[in-house]
Design goal:
single chain; mainly beta; Metal Binding Protein, Guanine Nucleotide Exchange Factor, Chain A; three-stranded antiparallel β-sheet
Amino acid sequence: MMSAAPITGGCLCGRIHYTIDRPPQIVCHCHCRLCQLASGALFLTWATFDAAAFTLTAGTPTIHESSATGRRHFCADCGTPLMMTTTDEPQKIDVTLASLDEPDRFAVQHNIWVGSRRAASKGFDATLPSHLDEPTG
């Protein structure tokens, strides 16, 4: 359950900051190959928010078009992956859970894109439901 405190976050070097005025719709560990390469990690944890609830309060991220519809937003100074937007769902914004000032505030609910899961992360959070792509419902 979310308290009344605002949701805030930003990058490692402090150049980019944001605030979000509503709780996430869903929080997932993404195991897709694009997230692995973009983060340099076995998976990337995303919190999906209503895009209208998200406000940049400092700095401007650099955008990398990682697929036909996907746009990854990151700090060009320190490299922190911050957000992802898609042209097919502009009403949503995925924010990296680790870039939140309080990442433990929201529980991870799903593993997604598990067909690309690396062996080293298999068994991690095995209690979570797993999906070959995006969860439905």
